[in-house]
């Protein structure tokens, strides 16, 4: 078989309108249900008419500022109803939006800006954003733009000249050189993905979809656009709500969320809660993607949840997803497949010469079809290499994913691994070369390498950094702190190992297979940390050891300096709640991140 083109069994084929625009799906819905709630955040609810009016007013203003087809507009807003207004406003104006997550380090955001060179950046606070991005970035406060368009003006001024091939957004991913690369996705591609979901998984007024993902991650589009195209409500989780699994479960139940998209590691954390997802009876569809869904988690979900679970796979270069597998009981020993192609998608399993391999044999997965990106922003060489001509469909292109798969006898695809040095950490696609470039930029580092190890707690892969210091030596904790100020959290290794030299292969390149596994006791812990002097601190130290899987933790050791991730933070707080019998907020760990500090905070009157 040359390609796999038939959609997932049980899912209907989708009738597409090839000349439609992405934002017209939302505009059409706002005409059908103008008074229905469209988006709810912690401070407001906007109806479809209010959302559309504000988006049109933003589009008018952007058009007047010279932002239209062929231009990029940065969106530097946290998750909120305002952020949805900004995204729709940019699309309505005919421009493409570039997400700039305010939670990212300034250095990383400036690298994105240097690549994207947007005409304008929309922000919530002009002064604060100028300090983050730089005073020379052209900024506009969304709040200063009128909330309603001038009657009749929108159709005359905004969006003229945009086509299905026009870019809708540019999302930046990790690049092997240490510089982020921008994936340019046109209206046609993301509209096709939205239309597929609204047809395959119908929803409408009365349904709610959780939005908890940063705009810089393309799962956010799945959380926003299909519900707005179908008349459902988008429920925006605030920072605490999306970080804390216990609060997230409460939010799902309180808002009667019916559809949820998340990475497997977060799904595992939700199931770890006392009630798991049993307290969310309205939850109907759970889309899991971004990293491998392992068999244990798959089976656990099927035992304890009533919603349907869908394993999704797709690169950013193919508008969110290329395959879908609706989970069901599997025979012993069989892994969870990534499934079958979405409608109007072609999948090829190829050898090194881009020839089809027989069913059952491993090969590189290539994807083609309506959801294909245009390529990489301002990088024709990389675009030509990764998006070659499709030899099976003359006049078309395909994307070489670098993922190794094989086709099962039933036609479903199984994911086997990668051809290159790309890894997935908590759903984020990361080039190990990017991590190494970040480490080499740190003062006092002479050589660097990066790799991964399996998380003993079942949370997928853990990123490990290796550094060879200069003559003055290196402090791993200090290096991690400095790296955290420069790079996104997903690029900061959970463990940093100091080596005298990097292992080299026959060609003189770093031999990543020979890099030593980190000693989970800590690369720079002093021997025998002082014993805690009170019972509460002893309990907190014990929980630190359990969650971080370190044999030695002292009262003054910082959770995040020890490599703790956001998911581990949620697990730690959950265990402390059970051990101490107190309803601890997750925010406490960000205020006091050592065992002694947490114990002291618990002794304050508000916790007494």
TrEMBL record:
InterPro entries: AA_adenyl_dom, ACP-like_sf, AMP-bd_C, AMP-bd_C_sf, AMP-binding_CS, AMP-dep_synth/lig_dom, PKS_PP-bd, PP-bd_ACP. PROSITE patterns: AMP_BINDING, CARRIER, PHOSPHOPANTETHEINE. Residues 521-534 have a biased composition (Acidic residues). Gene3D superfamilies: 3.30.300.30, 3.40.50.980, ACP-like, Luciferase, Domain 3. Transmembrane segments: none annotated. Keywords: Phosphopantetheine, Phosphoprotein. Residues 507-534 are annotated as: Disordered. Residues 531-606 form the Carrier domain. It comes from the Bacteria. NCBIfam families: AA-adenyl-dom (TIGR01733). This is Carrier domain-containing protein. It comes from Streptomyces coeruleofuscus.
